[in-house]
Amino acid sequence: MIARLAFLPLFFALLMTTQAAAQIKNLGTFQDWAAYQTSQGGKRICYIVSAPKKDEGNYSQRGDILTMVTHRPASKSFNVVSLHAGYKYKKGSTAEVTIGGAKFTLFTNAQTAWANDSVDDKALVRNMRAGAKMIVRAKSWRGTDTKDTYSLLGFTAALRSINKACKAP
Questions:
Q1: Which of 23, 46, 114, 145 is the most buried (most CB within 10 A)?
Q2: Can you list the alpha helix ranges (DSSP code H) found in the chain?
Q3: pLDDT in tens, 108-148
Q4: Residue 123 — φ and ψ, nearest 5°?
C-alpha cells in the first residue's frame, strides 16, 4: 500500500488548477492513509489520501483511484471529501458510499464525486473515523459498474495530522 501512496502528492499537484503547486510536505503515512500539506496562492492546504485495497469491475483500463479529505483554512473549508474514480462517471450518475451501516450518495462530475454539502462531508468523515472499511460503488461513462474497497485503518491519525497542520476547528 505504501508504494501505491507514493504517486499521490504528484496527483494532487496535477489537480490544482490555478497555479503550479508549491512544495508538498509529507506529514506522514498512517497505515493506509497519507497526510500532506501544500499551498496554493500562498494559502495553506492540507489533505489526506488513500487508494483502495481492492478495485472491481469489468474494465480493461482505469486511471488512478483515490479518496481525499481536504482542509483549506483560508476559505474556512474543512473535511471536504472527494472521490477520484480513475474514469469519467456516467453523466447524471451518483457514487454510493457505504461505511458500516451508513450509506451516502455523492454527486459526480467528470472523474470526481463529492458530498452534497458540508453537513454530508462532516457525516462522511465522522463515519470514516469510526469505520474499518469503506465501499464505493459507481458507474463509468461507458456503463461499467465498479466497486472500490478502502481500508480506513490510519484514517483518524492522518486526519489528526492535517487538523494540527491546518488548525482545523
A1: 46
A2: 2-5, 8-15, 118-130, 155-165
A3: 999 999 999 999 999 999 999 999 999 999 999 999 999 99
A4: -65, -40
Mean pLDDT on 77-106:
96
pLDDT for residue 2 is more than 80: no
- Listed by start position, the domains of the chain span 2-165
Q: Cell numbers at residue 28, please? A: 506522514
- pTM given for the model: 0.85
